[in-house]
Amino acid sequence: MKPKVGFMGLGIMGAPMAANILKAGYPLTIYNRTLAKAEPLAKLGAKVAASPKALAQDSQIIIAMVTGPEALYELLFGPEGAAAAFGPEQVFINMSSVSPSFTLELGKELAPTAIRFVDAPVSGTKKPAEDAQLVILAGGNQKRVEELEPLFLTMGKKVIYCGKTGQGSMMKMFINLLLGLMMEGFAESVNFGRLGGLNLETMLEVVSSGAMNAPMFQVKATNIRNKTYPASFPLKHLAKDAKFVLDTAYELGAPVPAGQMLLHLYRLGVAQGWGDEDISAVMKVMEHLSGK
Ligand code: NAP
Q1: Residues lining ligand 1, CB < 6 A?
Q2: How confident is the model at residue 1, as a pLDDT?
Q3: What does 224-253 look like in DSSP terms, one character per residue?
Q4: What is the pLDDT of residues 225-280, one digit of tens each?
Q5: Which CATH superfamily is domain 170-290 in?
Q6: pLDDT for the residue numbered 193
Q7: Which of 66, 72, 244, 245 to mutate to test the pocket of ligand 1 (most atoms within 8 A of CB)?
Q8: Distant-in-sequence contacts of 42-48, Cβ < 8 A, 24+ apart
Q9: What are the backbone angles phi and psi of residue 207, rounded to the nearest 5°?
């Protein structure tokens, strides 16, 4: 018999992830701050909880996939928060992207409930979430992570065990630093070429013909070509993660000079009102800085 799962946070990522858990036959209870987003899943058979606490009372495994620390605190410790119903027989999995130090802090705050805690953020964006092709970056007790693998594989193609609690979050910061740098580097280079009179399609052909080709460049080039940036991974979330990377780098004494610039550039995008657009809208930041 499959365990009862409770899923909190039905945004760009959470909605398809929860849908895939339901499709795999797990009994699913859902909660989202904005109730309307729960309707499509309710129609597919998910039970809608009136509060995070009600969700936790009804679930053996509780998953959160929300923006970050503020949202997690609200859902766990706010009015009718889930943590009030947590106990030793349950597992809580945070799949939201947060810093490793936040994960460790959260682990300490949950310790009095005796719930078993796993940090398991994901690599992959909206389409891989819809296609159950995410890569799950899991931290915590290894045996527990292995036990959870069938559930993780309803959402993803692979589970990578990253180490003790907090290391899933650390891996997520690692991959998002690289993602942010690659996206910014691509936009900066394409804008440079554009101002030098190069044609976008010819630049893309050169990139795709050599060793620097990356599937991400081809996907994001579509947005640049169409000059529309529908959010797959919202730019504001990368700005959030760039801050977590810098905080973590400061704690570790790790040099991240380009990471510093990333925070500045993605924040500039947010300040320009492009935070809800895709990370590829960093192209608009480049055009804005060019003045033409
Ligand atoms: P999203 O579409 O912006 O959804 C955010 C979710 O968090 C929504 O369910 C939202 O509820 C909830 N939320 C925000 N603030 C809240 C609060 N104060 N109290 C309760 N709920 C709150 O974000 P997303 O793209 O799905 O991303 C979710 C997480 O996955 C983030 O940590 C992100 O960095 C990470 N991630 C995203 C991608 C991607 O490509 N999008 C890829 C990998 C990882 P409402 O619906 O009520 O606003």
Answers
A1: 9-14, 32-34, 37, 65-68, 70-71, 74-75, 96-97, 122, 125-126, 232-234, 237, 241
A2: 87
A3: HHHT----SSBHHHHHHHHHHHHHHHHHHT
A4: 999 999 999 999 999 999 999 999 999 999 999 999 999 999 999 999 999 999 99
A5: N-(1-d-carboxylethyl)-l-norvaline Dehydrogenase; domain 2 (1.10.1040.10)
A6: 98
A7: 66
A8: 44/19, 46/7, 46/18, 46/22
A9: -60, -45
Strand segments (E) across the chain: 5-8, 28-31, 47-48, 61-64, 91-94, 116-119, 122-123, 134-139, 156-163
The token pair at 135 is 């890569």
The fold for domain 5-164 equals Rossmann fold (3.40.50)
CA 179 to chain CA mean position, Å: 12
List the domain boundaries for the chain. 5-164, 170-290
Q: How far apart are CA 25 and CA 16, in angstroms?
A: 15
